[in-house]
Amino acid sequence: MSDDESTRPPAPTVRRVRAQDGPQWARLYAAYRAFYEMPEQPDVVATAWGWVLGEQHGMTGLVATAPDGTTLLGLANLRTFARPTTGTQGLYLDDLFTDPSARRSGAGGALLEAAAALAAQRGASVVRWITATGNATARAVYDKHATATPWVTYDMAPRA
What we know:
- The chain is α+β, with helices and mostly antiparallel strands.
- It has one domain (10-145): Gcn5-related N-acetyltransferase (GNAT) (Aminopeptidase, 3-Layer(aba) Sandwich), CATH 3.40.630.30.
- The protein has helices spanning 3-7, 22-35, 42-53, 107-122, 136-145, and strands at residues 13-16, 59-65, 72-83, 88-98, 127-128.
- Helix 4 crosses helix 5 (136-145).
- The radius of gyration is 16 Å and the shape is globular.
- Residues 12-160 form the N-acetyltransferase domain.
- One of its GO terms (molecular function) is N-acetyltransferase activity.
- This is GCN5 family N-acetyltransferase.
């Protein structure tokens, strides 16, 4: 073992969310929303937590933990989606966030690898997500685990 390896902190562990994660998860999710300049909306955070914890709407919540197993370093919220063009299902990574104090700990990469393993376990054909083009920090991590696509995303407001 090299000196560098002996001084490196243990890698984060990834597991599914548990009920007792609620307060830490909510703090991380609120920080994620703030990063993307979304308004502070505790009711939205609470709704998302209910979906993730209850695995509603095909949602699965993963968290990266510190070696103590209880301190949350990051989160990933995934959901199943149908892929009619391939006749398969995929996993959509709605949200991925690592606490700024845990950046460069390997938490983000560990969450991505756990998402890939979950997709394989479920027989999914892809793990897909979007990010802001200017999010260079996240994109540097993503580029180590996945391939950027040429697709452009659009949003359309519902209208009667």
